[in-house]
């Protein structure tokens, strides 16, 4: 079990939170981006730069993420692809994306894209506030607790 971060659009505050959590729990966090990103130093966190190009970072995450892993992304199509593989997905606002809610998210995304392409100014998401940061921290902690229980159970079964 490990954490994969779609790092191109991941806010610095969330990157720092993820690295601290990975270091505290000894779970590997890999940040994938098509540009250089800075992360705090930790033996449990790494940043990997992939080629520039449409969906190159997303495709790398899809190729490497496995069932039981966590992906952190704002990208709805990426979330949809990894959810199909049994991966847990949260966005940087702390929302858990699941098989039950991803279709609605895709529909909203497509609708907003249609509106923008027809000239309607839709604006972007509101800035992250303390509530969203707390929601993100809570979702991350929930997954980490689950991951640690899994590792403990695996260690006991191999004894």
TrEMBL record:
<dbReference type="InterPro" id="IPR003791">
    <property type="entry name" value="UPF0178"/>
</dbReference>
<protein>
    <recommendedName>
        <fullName>UPF0178 protein BZG74_12710</fullName>
    </recommendedName>
</protein>
<dbReference type="Pfam" id="PF02639">
    <property type="entry name" value="DUF188"/>
</dbReference>
<comment type="similarity">
    <text>Belongs to the UPF0178 family.</text>
</comment>
């Amino acid at each position: 079990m490990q954490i994969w971060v779609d790092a191109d659009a991941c806010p610095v505050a969330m990157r720092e939170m993820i690295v601290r959590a990975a270091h505290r729990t000894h779970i590997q966090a890999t940040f994938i981006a098509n540009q250089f990103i800075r992360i705090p130093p930790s033996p449990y966190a790494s940043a990997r730069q992939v080629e520039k190009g449409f969906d190159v970072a997303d495709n790398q995450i899809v190729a490497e993420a496995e069932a039981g892993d966590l992906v952190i992304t704002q990208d709805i199509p990426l979330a949809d692809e990894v959810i199909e593989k049994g991966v847990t997905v949260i966005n940087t606002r702390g929302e858990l994306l699941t098989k039950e809610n991803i279709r609605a998210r895709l529909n909203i995304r497509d609708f907003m894209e249609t509106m923008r392409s027809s000239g309607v100014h839709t604006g972007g998401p509101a800035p992250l506030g303390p509530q969203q940061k707390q929601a993100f921290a809570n979702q991350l902690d929930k997954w980490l607790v689950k991951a640690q229980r899994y590792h403990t159970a695996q260690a006991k079964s191999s004894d």
